[in-house]
Amino acid sequence: MRKITALTIAFIMIFTSFSFALDFNATAKYLEKQKLDEWGILALYSYGKDVKNKTLKKVDASNITTDYEAYIMGAVPKGEDVSSYAKKIIKAQRESGKFADYIDGTGEDLINAHIWGIISLYTANKEGYDKKKALEWLKENQNEDGGFSVFTGMNYSDVDLTAMGLIAYSILGLDKEHEKVKKAINFIEKNIDKKQTCEGVAYYILARTKLGMDIDKNLYNKLLKYQLKDGSFKHLKRASKGNYMATWHGMLAMMDYKNKSSVFTRLHDMNKVKNEKKKVAKK
C-alpha cells in the first residue's frame, strides 16, 4: 500500500510539472507567431527567451507619455539604453507630482500615465524623480472604495488599474500592511469576479507578486480558465478565440507565479547591476 501511495504521489508530481510546462510553452509559441510590440517582448523575456533581436518601433515622434513608458517596458528586456526616454518621462513630472499625460508636461487626467511612469522608471533603474510627490499624488487619487479610476475625478474604479496601482505603491515603498494597499486589495477581491477578464486576474497576480504576497492556487487556476489549447488566452470566459493582448497578460502572470518573483523587480535588479558595473568601469 505504501509503495502504491508513493508511486501515485510521484506520478501526480510529474504530471503537474508537465502540465505547467505545457501552459508556458504553448503560450510562448503562440506569442512568437504574433506581430510583437513592447508587451509581447516583455512577456517572452519573462518566459526566458532571448529578445535582443526582436524589432521594437521607436516612439520619438509621439507626444503621449504612455508611449514612452511602454517603449521602456520592451526596450529594457532587449538590453537597450533607455536613458533618453527615461529623462523625457522624468521631465514630464508635473509640480503636483503626477507624470503628465503628454511628454511636453501637459495633461493631468490619465492615472495610467502616472502609474506606468513609476513602473517604467523603476524597471529601467532610472528613478531620479520626486518620489514623495509621486506617491502623494497617487494616494490622493485613490477612490474611497480603494480602487483607482482610468481618469482623475471619476468615482468608478477599475480592477486592472487598481492592480497596476498596487505595483506602483510597492515600488514607492508601501508594503502589504499599509492601509492604502489593504484598501486596494479589498476592492480587487470584492470585484474581480464581477468583471471576469483575463487581464484583471493577470494584473492581480503581478501585483501580489510585487508585494511579496502568496498567490493562492485558486487565483492561478482562475487565470488558466482563460487559456485555450493553442496556448493563447481569451479576454472573456465566454469568448471562443484567444487574442494577443490577453495572451501577453497571461504569460506575464504565469511566469511571475512560476518564478515567485516580479518581472519588474528582475529587470530593475538587472539594470542596477549594469549601472554599477558602468560606474566601476569609469573609475
Automatic annotation (TrEMBL):
Domain Squalene cyclase N-terminal, residue spans: 128-190
Keyword Signal appears in the UniProt entry: yes
Signal sequence range: 1-21
Thylakoid is among the record's keywords: no
InterPro entries assigned to the protein according to its UniProt record, in alphabetical order: SQ_cyclase_N
Keywords: Signal
Protein name as annotated: Terpene cyclase/mutase family protein
